[in-house]
Design a protein that fits this description.
alpha+beta, 44% helix, 17% strand, elongated
Length: 93
């Protein structure tokens, strides 16, 4: 995998875990395979588009729960902030 693909995979995995955890906290059972998560890296800017496709019939409440969980996943929140990469200290042994 290329580095950007690893980042996209981390975002997708975090979104999926966040949706599962939110459903569990709400006492909601989402049907297996009911939501497909697709990540697209935006080349014209530093960003990602997260698309959700409901592959099974979900109630409006379940869809809202899934959307909110996707937006509030830890990796999505981190990538939604300005990101700075600072060089660290180089240690020579």
């Amino acid at each position: 995998m290329r580095p950007h693909e690893l980042l996209e995979s981390a975002l997708a995995a975090c979104v999926c875990m966040s949706m599962d955890m939110a459903a569990e906290r709400a006492g909601v059972t989402l049907p297996e395979g009911s939501v497909d998560v697709m990540i697209e890296r935006l080349d014209q800017e530093t960003g990602f588009e997260v698309s959700l496709r409901f592959a099974a019939a979900l109630t409006e409440a379940q869809q809202e729960l899934v959307r909110n969980a996707a937006q509030s996943s830890p990796v999505a929140r981190t990538l939604g902030k300005p990101v700075k990469v600072r060089p660290g200290v180089i240690l020579v042994s």
